[in-house]
Amino acid sequence: MAADVKGKGEGRAARGLFVATISTGSFLLFLVQPMVARMALPRLGGAPNVWNSAMLVYQALLLAGYAYAHKLGRLSLRRQTIVHLALLLLAGSTLPVGLFDLVQPKGLPEALWVPVLLGLSVGPVFFAVSAQAPLMQRWFAADPGAGQPWALYAASNLGSFAGLLAYPLLAEPLLTLRSQSIAWSCGFALLISLVILCAASRRHALPPPPPSQKQLWGQGVRIPGRTMALWLALAAIPSGLMLSTTTHLTTDIFAMPLLWVIPLGLYLLSFVVAFADNRAPAAAIAFVTPVVVLFAGSYAMLSNGSGTLWIAGGACLMLFCIATTLHKRLYDLRPAPAQLTRFYLVMSAGGALGGLFTALVAPLVFDWAWEHPLLVMAAAVLIPLDPILRWRSGEGIEPGMARVALLLLLAFAAFLGWQLDQRALRPDEGLAAVLLTVFLTGTGIMVMAWRTAFVTVLALAMVAQGGIWTIRATLGGERTRSYFGIYTVRDTADGALRTLAHGTTLHGEQSLDPGRSREALTYYGPTSGVALALNAVPHLEGAAARIGVVGLGTGSLACRAVPGQRWTFFEIDPVILQFSTSERFTFLRDCTPGARVILGDARLKLTDMPAGVFDVLVIDAFSSDAIPVHLLTKEALQVYARALTPRGLLLLHISNRYLDLAPVVGTNAAASGMTALSRLDRPVDTALYTPSRWIALSRDGSVVKDLARISADTPWTPLNDRAARPWTDDHASILPFVRWDRLTGRP
Fold first, then answer.
1. CA neighbours within 13 Å on the CB side: how many for 61?
2. What single string gives the DSSP state of each residue in 393-410?
3. From the CB of residue 615, how many other CB atoms can be counted at a distance below 10 Å?
4. Mind giving me the DSSP string for 302-352?
């Protein structure tokens, strides 16, 4: 009895040790991902596809780590220990983590350049740590009395989730990037110590039997290729859907700060639920998933930029339900522990495949985020359907009558879809649209006994709930997709205006009336800060002022130029340049035909230029409704100040729905020895002009004083807002500046 108690106690202790080791490795993995992305921000910018490319790199490295763990499992535990510890020490020699010093080769597109840069920067340590989860589970299962290892995978993803939250909530606000890197190195050393302890706890375990040509799983049957293909699909769809949800939300629905954390966090939590020993939560979620897919999935084609917090929440709920349900199917199809590493290898390959499709293939093939509704449809094909209403043949209804009823229900679904299409995009009929969506969801529930009918109703709901507009925009050639975003050029219904939008972010607008085609609209109206400043430039800087503009958009600011001035535009996306130099938008052609346009990251391009090349520099670079962080740091202001003459004028556009950026600019300006004025413009004509906030800065205080004097009728105010500390390339956090009332909808 005493021996049994001791054995159980030792088993619990060993289990705790393995859980700690696996959780620590996963925590480090998901702490290093955003850390390296943050390091790369000054060089790569903050477009959603940059994050998708980063995720693709991590998934590829994860796949390589799982393949390594699978191959290593063929050796004895002693040899596994020696090889793995040697790999960990070798990878540790590359610490502390930092961005690899490599210049982007000419002609290499960003879609390939970003993975190369991130892979070289974090590849060795990520590869070594990524092998922890499957390898430690295999070591754990080497003791026949230890129990099943599958719950340890849930612990792994719980550690990943903790690491994901720890970065934006703790590491980024409290630590500089250098301190983060050092702390991560200490965690890596802790991980090596835990791996040594795990190896010591299994030093008396029997060596694994030599592998045979016919790997067995379960009941002495070779793993069918069809089963492994299903493993691959069940892993690929949630992985791709996680990335497509991020793109869809940040582009078309709700471009709020840190939104990318939510889909990734829910994706990780789905593994925790699906692989837990307690099967009840996963079963309950799988039961309601078809209903959630019918309702929330109807918004998967929405692309008119009219999304709300509720739609964003529905998309995240759908992602969690789909991921949990498909991962539950994976768990139900798991092999015997002897095939554990093969199972995880195929799972990892599926994750990488989903990431490859969403991050690389989709931006090249599609003009919009079509991967999102396609993945939702693919999920609808694979999720288990347990009919809530059981009325098929053999359950009280003749087969012929069941077919007639099914056809009538599908016709009813088509009618509801048509009605929904007529009402969904009308604000005054929002309640009617919601009710129609509910009825359409109910129709889908009634046909759940037929997979094809269920998927058909879902497709009808997608098309009706804004999808028809999305399809028309594609067929009409209104949209263009690049690595940096999805752009839509659209004429208003009355034919008066042409707009360029990146999802919910308006990049410019031009009047189609020839007599007003040179008027700068939206954020650049006559009472905006930039208009007042540019009008004053001849008085402040002379008639031959040299003006630089970061962020081209449609080229609206070009028509603020006066004869004798020399203008230079900086634009990172070649697609934007195509828009502004074609017949679609004519500001550049009509107002500054001799302007120079420099393609590339503006901060890097300005760094390469001689000092004092501009008299005025305008920073107007939007990304998902925000100026990229790396363009507002203290180092960025120093780059701008160097590019300006001593009396040069710097203009920053900080209009934002969800971030209050004024304290950041105020503190950084004071730290850089610059005087700053703020102009909050609330135009009367909101049909043509948009409220905006511009900040004017100069190292020469007399320049901004003269600006305020010249614009006395439309006053500027001193920028007295201050942050607790400056933003730097080494330390910047947006959390203190989030407008939580705007996010929650409270007044």
1. 26
2. BTTTB-HHHHHHHHHHHH
3. 22
4. --SS---HHHHHHHHHHHHHHHHHHHHHHHHT---GGGHHHHHHHHHHHHH
Nearest to 338 by CA among 105, 149, 567, 480: 149
Closest to 249 in 3D by CA, of 257, 464, 342, 229: 257
Give CA–CA dist 260/240, Å, rounded.
Answer: 14
Q: In this structure, what token pair is assigned to residue 94?
A: 């590359």
Distance (Å, whole) CA 300 – CA 460: 11
471-494: pLDDT as tens digits: 888 887 778 888 777 888 888 888
Model pLDDT for residues 529-562, shown as the tens digit of each residue: 999 999 999 999 999 999 999 988 899 999 999 9
Phi, psi of 615 (to 5 degrees): -95, -30
pTM of the model: 0.78
Residue 5 CA neighbour count, 13 Å, CB half: 2
Q: What angle do CA 183, 188, 190 make, to 5 degrees?
A: 95
CA dist 225 → 215, 228, 230, 282 (Å): 12, 5, 9, 26
Element (H, E) at 662: helix 662-671
Rounded to whole angstroms, the Cα distance separating 579 from 434 reads 37
CB 56 within 8 A of CB 48: no
* Token pair recorded at residue 186: 């200490």
Distance CA 623, CA 112 (A): 21
How many helices (H) and strands (E) the chain has is answered by: 27, 14
What is the full DSSP assignment across 22-70? Answer: HHHHHHHHHHHHHHHHHHHHHHH---HHHHHHHHHHHHHHHHHHHHHHH
Q: What is the structure's pLDDT at 601?
A: 78
- According to the model, what pLDDT value does residue 435 have? 67
